[in-house]
Write a structure and sequence with these properties.
InterPro entries: Flavoprotein-like_sf, FMN_Rdtase-like_dom, NAD(P)H-dep_reductase
Mean pLDDT: 96
Low-confidence stretches: none
GO molecular function: azobenzene reductase (NADP+) activity; FMN binding
Structural class: alpha/beta
Shape: globular
EC number: 1.7.1.6
Pfam families: FMN_red
Number of helices: 5
Distance between the termini: 17 Å
Protein name: Chromate reductase
CATH class: Alpha Beta
Amino acid sequence: MSTTKIAVLVGSLRSGSINLRLARAMEKLAPKEVGFEFADLNLPLFNQDLENDLPEPVAKLKTLVSQSQGVLFVTPEHNRSIPAALKNAIDWGTRPWGQNVWMGKAGGIVGASPSAAGSAMAQQHLRNVLAAEGVNLLTTPEVFLQMKEGLIDDQFQITNEDTRKFLQGWMDRYVAWVNKTA
């Protein structure tokens, strides 16, 4: 059985990130033939002076994305936009010119926030950035998850049945999108 590889970019660097919890819960909803590999976004700030001799963490990120059939972006909202770490990773992935690893990738975006808006503004900004870089984004349904205490347990199980069904439906649609687009 062939494995579909999904690169996962969680926009928060915080170890207790609710978006990391969401990503781990989404991983459990994926079919067995789909493997998630989490990218490390602890990268140096983009500097064009370094693009022809990529720092090792950047080279690892680009290899991960290049070898993946899809990319899942799990983003919090920082000041009504995407986190700096996520934007930095995207910038590195486009360079040097002609070596854009995002081009043609099957992308999906989800995000969580304690607020009822559930990272909607960040996701809209992220969609604009990714469209400019050639990512083939799944557009619907959108996942603007309001994270409440206990929604995802310590084993990364979604405790609310309606939320679990909604996220399972999204995952099923995303995997079909990756298989169609990749």
